[in-house]
Amino acid sequence: MPVQVDADQRRRIVAEAALRLAVDEGLASVTFRKVAAAAGLNIGSVRHYFPDHESLVVAAVTEAGDHMGRRLALHPAPGRAAGDAARKHLFDVVAELIPLDDEKHREAIILMEVIAASRMNSAFEPVVRQMATDLNAVLVDALEQIGVADPRQEAVRLAALISGLSLNAITPHGSLDRATIRAVLHGHIAAL
């Protein structure tokens, strides 16, 4: 009797392997051969689920985004709460999106690499645009909880802060430590 394969689980295994490779060795390392070896599969199995390099990378980015989404779901909005509860909620949401632990650090690496790669590779553009749309929606919602006068404009500022802190945390450009990132976020949110 043939072995039953869970296609969704197999895709996740391959996407996780591609994510690990992209984080450890860069996007160029996400080859069928390397991903297959990292996933413990043959190249044909990987190609069955992902027809090209770009689809492998998009799967890795999507997997990282799914991780973030599951963590964000752990922080339901408190409703239009005044003061500290709404600010804590905003901090908790933003803290899920920046490299404040090893898992988020790994995710930030792949996200930043794909964002940069989307400039030259249009195959990455849809996933990058969707990430920006999702980030904006999450931030606007959390900012509305605080009662910020213009949550859409503040979401743009906060997204820029998240991007800058993330870039400086994962590259030699800034090498920010996690305590500094937390302090900057607390200061920004307190000033809203």
From TrEMBL:
| DNA-binding region(s), residue ranges | 31-50
Q: What Pfam families does the record point to?
A: TetR_C_6, TetR_N
Write down the InterPro entries for this protein, in alphabetical order.
BetI_C, Homeodomain-like_sf, HTH-type_TetR-like_transc_reg, HTH_TetR, Tet_transcr_reg_TetR-rel_C_sf
Q: Which UniProt keywords apply?
A: DNA-binding, Repressor, Transcription, Transcription regulation
Lineage, top-rank taxon, reads Bacteria
Annotated HTH tetR-type domain residues: 8-68
Protein name per Swiss-Prot or TrEMBL:
TetR family transcriptional regulator C-terminal domain-containing protein
